[in-house]
Design the sequence.
């Protein structure tokens, strides 16, 4: 099957063989494992965290409120979401310019979950050699058992991942109860299975193909690179010509470079490339080849760093610069944005008011001298305590406001609507669209105050 | 089309449309409440907010997928470029 395929589509669509990355040990792999544990720990742990008697992070879609550690966000706070996305993108740009594909190697969910799935593969099917052998072996009881337990682990982990994902949108303790009593709502079940399935497929089967064929970032990250960005590179000058040798010979005398051509760097690579062929866009900068090579260099008593984090400039012997315009610009923008968001969060007005004019009646004549417009005012108390609000109006001569009750009391995190009648003497307005201001102020705290501009419609005169 | 190509094409169309659909849903539903949309369009339809979000997401995904698939056809078919 695979032969003619490779022949017709040389290069681009070579049929894929499953990559079994070799387990390597070293400082970078320790760091990566740590990143996996920490990031997955945050993902799985966060929904269980309580804050003021409420789930600390809950995106409550049914009531359209986001709770994040005591802060409550409403759809009206969309600006923060937009800013957050911009900050996330800038952070990615900044770190890419500075340190290359740090994101891909250490923090991308695809990498992190793939790593976790490979751990499970290792526990059940053994190390690289054993896995390669198992792939080729016929279906014995042993293979069935190992494969079966791997898939059981994967499915269980994926389902729990889906459950946790839904737990960010439905209170997780309640969700756990629903799962245990088999009482899950349709949409909850749907998203649990959907996210679980995506995790299982992406981390169990697609793996590096996601990075190579599906990831947009992998394709455009080079735009954020320059000659001073950190990349993983093989020191060709030092390594070549490569070749096997005994540990006792002086390889320089034999005209050999430091690379002993052991292929460990290729075996360790989760995307199956050979770093010695130079920088390739498949490289997710996981640094597995660095750790693998350093281990070999230690055994050979050669200096470490034949494969190392470096920059294009450094490889060519030019001075490497960390602070460059690109980095400074990204960094300054990032800092300014973060500071701005933090500042505005502290200044956030815990009250939002929407004013809607009555569309059915343009204006009403109360008596010979008075024109009335009716508005619906929606009050959103974003504070964590209840407030009583008083409404006043200004901006037109003789303008008065009449509400059902003098004070409008709204509970914490609640909304209320009030029908508001605004009256103006007939000679003070002419025609439609006279602007005036509605001022909503909290009785107990005058700092909580909003001003809305509305339009008053009078008869044409 | 070989199986490998098919898989790759599926990945290359399903995935970008998924990503854009996720962003589009967030932006869209942050400013528009499915409940009010529902009241203004099909008030007789019994449908919850969650259902609204889900339908919206899959609609965006579908539209994105259609666009990606058309792009794929246009880019891969057509007259061969002379080399």
Sequence:
């Amino acid at each position: 099957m695979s032969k003619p395929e490779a022949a017709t589509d040389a290069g681009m669509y070579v049929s894929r063989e499953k990559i079994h990355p070799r387990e390597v040990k070293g400082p970078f792999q320790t760091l990566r494992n740590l990143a996996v544990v920490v990031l997955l720990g945050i993902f799985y742990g966060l929904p269980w965290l309580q804050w003021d008697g409420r789930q600390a992070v809950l995106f409550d879609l049914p009531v359209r409120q986001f709770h994040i550690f005591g802060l409550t966000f409403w759809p009206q706070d969309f600006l923060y979401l937009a800013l957050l996305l911009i900050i996330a993108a800038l952070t990615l740009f900044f770190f890419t310019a500075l340190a290359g594909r740090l994101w891909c190697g250490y923090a991308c969910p695809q990498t992190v979950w793939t790593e976790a799935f490979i751990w499970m593969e290792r526990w059940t099917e053994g190390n690289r050699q054993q896995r390669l052998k198992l792939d080729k072996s016929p279906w014995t009881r042993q293979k069935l058992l190992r494969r079966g337990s791997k898939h059981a682990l994967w499915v269980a982990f994926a389902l729990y991942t889906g459950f946790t994902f839904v737990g960010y949108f439905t209170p997780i303790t309640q969700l756990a109860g629903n799962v245990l009593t088999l009482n899950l709502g349709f949409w909850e079940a749907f998203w649990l299975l959907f996210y679980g399935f995506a995790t299982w497929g992406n981390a169990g089967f697609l793996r590096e193909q996601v990075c190579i064929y599906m990831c947009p970032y992998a394709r455009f990250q080079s735009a954020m690179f320059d000659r001073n960005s950190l990349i993983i590179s093989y020191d060709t000058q030092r390594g070549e010509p490569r070749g096997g040798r005994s540990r006792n010979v002086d390889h320089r005398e034999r005209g050999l470079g430091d690379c002993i051509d052991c292929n460990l760097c290729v075996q360790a690579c989760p995307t199956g490339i050979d770093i010695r062929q130079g920088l390739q866009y498949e490289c997710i900068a996981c640094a597995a080849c660095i750790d693998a090579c350093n281990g070999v260099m230690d055994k050979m008593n050669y200096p470490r760093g034949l494969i190392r984090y470096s920059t294009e400039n450094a490889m060519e012997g030019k001075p490497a610069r960390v602070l460059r315009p690109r980095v400074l610009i990204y960094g300054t923008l990032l800092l300014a944005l973060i500071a701005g968001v933090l500042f505005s969060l502290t200044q956030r007005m815990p009250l939002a008011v929407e004013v809607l004019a009555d569309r059915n009646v343009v204006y009403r004549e109360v008596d010979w001298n008075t024109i009335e417009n009716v508005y619906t005012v929606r009050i959103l108390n974003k504070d964590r305590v209840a407030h009583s609000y008083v409404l006043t109006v200004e901006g037109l001569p003789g303008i008065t406001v009449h509400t059902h009750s003098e004070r409008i009391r709204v509970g914490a995190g609640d909304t209320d609507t009030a029908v508001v009648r605004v009256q103006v003497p007939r000679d003070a307005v002419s025609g439609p669209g006279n602007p005036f201001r509605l001022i909503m102020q909290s009785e107990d705290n005058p700092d909580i105050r909003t001003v809305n501009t509305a339009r008053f419609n009078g008869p044409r005169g | 089309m070989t199986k490998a190509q098919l898989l790759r094409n599926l990945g290359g169309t399903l995935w970008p449309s998924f990503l854009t659909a996720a962003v589009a849903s967030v932006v869209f539903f942050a400013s528009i409440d499915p409940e009010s949309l529902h009241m203004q369009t099909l008030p007789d339809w019994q449908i919850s907010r969650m259902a609204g979000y889900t339908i919206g997401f899959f609609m965006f995904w579908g539209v994105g997928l259609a666009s990606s698939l058309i792009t794929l056809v246009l880019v891969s078919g057509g007259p061969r470029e002379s080399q």
